[in-house]
Structure formats: C-alpha cells, structure tokens
C-alpha cells in the first residue's frame, strides 16, 4: 500500500518534468494513467490489509513522496525513469505474477490480478521513455549519463532485494506475501533476461558492442 501510493507521487512528479521538457503527449498521458493506476493499487491494498487484520498505517513523511532533483530536467527524467520504471517496474512484473500464483484469498487475488495487468504497461512506458530520450536531441548525453549512472542504480536495487528469510509466517502466503529471499531470485532472473541485454543494446553507439557493467 505504501509502495503503490509512493509510486503515484513519484510518477506524478516525473510527468510534470515530461511536460517541462516537451515530451510526447502520448507519454504524458500514459504517465498520468499510471498515476491513477498506482492510486487504485494503493486503495485496493488498503482494503486487503484491513481484511487480513492489519492495523492502521502511520502517515507517510512528505519527504518520502518527493523526487529529489539536483540536475537538469532531462537528466532527472533519465535518472528516475531508469530507477522507477526500467528497473523497479520491470522486476515488478514477474514478482507480482509470482505473488499471485500462490495467493488463495479472493480479495488478495483480485488486487494482484489488477496489479499484474497494469505492471507490464508500466514497464513498457519506462523503456519507451528511455528510447525517446536516447533518440532525441539530448540523446548523446543521455547515453553517456546512462552508462555512468547505471552501475550504481543496479547496485541499489540489488541491495534492496538481497538477503532475507526464505520462509513466511503461517498463513501469510495465502494473502500474496513472498518470503524475502524470493525477491532476490526474481531479480537475478530479470537481470539475466531483461536488464543486461536491453541496457547493453541501448548503451551501444553506432552499432558498437556494449557490455553492461557488473
């Protein structure tokens, strides 16, 4: 619930930056659609949390809902699109499918079916936006910045998904929860099948071979 609401706030900021740089109206509209998707996900998550017996969630600190921006707008769009969509939303697709596969509670299945249906579109938005940046007049600098910033971005998401227990409390799986160790397994699969080939292709200039850093 917290993650989906935070995603709505972050995507809303990113859409504002897209308008600022004169991005395609189709990208702007799709970004706004994603904001609404994330709000729906948060609302449905709150309903499932209540049904599962969860207590009230403290208000989110406002700082957590903001995207920091210390660089030019195009660079901020590139940075956060890679972090949120090319990395985060891309790994979310198989992750939520795995959650759904073991969920038996009807309300939780409804929530996860909705999220699974949306996440592939969110992932595709990120890669389309990245390609738009690389193909535009800012493309050469975007490619350089991507190559410089990608190793740290990958390290951050690996750290976030690393470690953790391989078991869950009794009854948790039926509500859609996964053991923390399963997150790392999904991430490693996505890195092999999605990130490495796709980033390597986009880092290649003039047909040259590119190797995705460690």
Q: Gap between N and C termini, in Å?
A: 32 Å
Structural class from helices and strands?
Answer: mainly alpha
Number of domains: 1
Gyration radius over CA: 18 Å
Shape, principal axes of CA atoms: globular
Architecture per CATH nomenclature, i.e. the level-2 architecture: Up-down Bundle
> How do the helices and strands follow one another from N- to C-terminus?
HHHHHH
Relevant CATH superfamily: Ferritin, core subunit, four-helix bundle
Strand content: under 5%
Compile the SSE list and pairings.
Elements: H1 2-20, H2 25-51, H3 73-101, H4 106-135, H5 139-160, H6 180-203
Helix pairs in contact: 1-2, 1-3, 2-4, 3-4, 3-5, 3-6, 4-5, 5-6
Keywords, please?
214 residues, mainly alpha, Ferritin, 6 helices
Overall description:
This protein has 214 residues and is mostly helical. The protein has a single domain, classed as Ferritin, core subunit, four-helix bundle (Ferritin). Helices cover 71% and strands 0% of the residues. The chain has 6 helices and no strands. The chain has helices spanning 2-20, 25-51, 73-101, 106-135, 139-160, 180-203. Helix 1 (2-20) runs antiparallel to helix 2 (25-51) and helix 1 (2-20) packs antiparallel against helix 3. The longest helix is centred in the middle third of the chain and has 30 residues, at 106-135. The chain is globular, with a radius of gyration of 18 Å. The two termini are 32 Å apart. Mean pLDDT is 93; it is low at 206-210.
């Amino acid at each position: 619930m917290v993650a989906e609401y935070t995603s709505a706030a972050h995507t809303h900021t990113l859409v504002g930056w897209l308008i600022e740089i004169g991005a395609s109206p189709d990208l702007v509209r799709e970004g706004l659609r994603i904001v609404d998707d994330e709000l729906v996900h948060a609302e449905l998550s709150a309903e499932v949390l209540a049904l599962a017996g969860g207590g009230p969630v403290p208000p989110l600190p406002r700082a957590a809902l903001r995207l920091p921006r210390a660089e030019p707008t195009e660079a901020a769009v590139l940075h956060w699109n890679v972090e949120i969509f090319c990395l985060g939303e891309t790994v979310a697709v198989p992750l939520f499918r795995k959650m759904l596969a073991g969920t038996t509670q009807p309300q939780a299945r409804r929530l996860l079916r909705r999220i699974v249906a949306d996440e592939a579109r969110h992932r595709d938005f990120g890669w389309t936006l990245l390609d738009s940046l690389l193909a535009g007049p800012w493309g050469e600098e975007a490619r350089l910045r991507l190559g410089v910033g990608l190793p740290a971005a990958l390290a951050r998401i690996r750290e976030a998904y690393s470690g953790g227990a391989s078991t869950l409390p009794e009854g948790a799986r039926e509500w859609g929860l996964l053991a923390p160790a399963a997150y790392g397994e999904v991430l490693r699969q996505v890195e092999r099948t999605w990130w490495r080939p796709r980033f390597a292709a986009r880092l290649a200039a003039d047909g040259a071979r590119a190797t995705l850093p460690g």
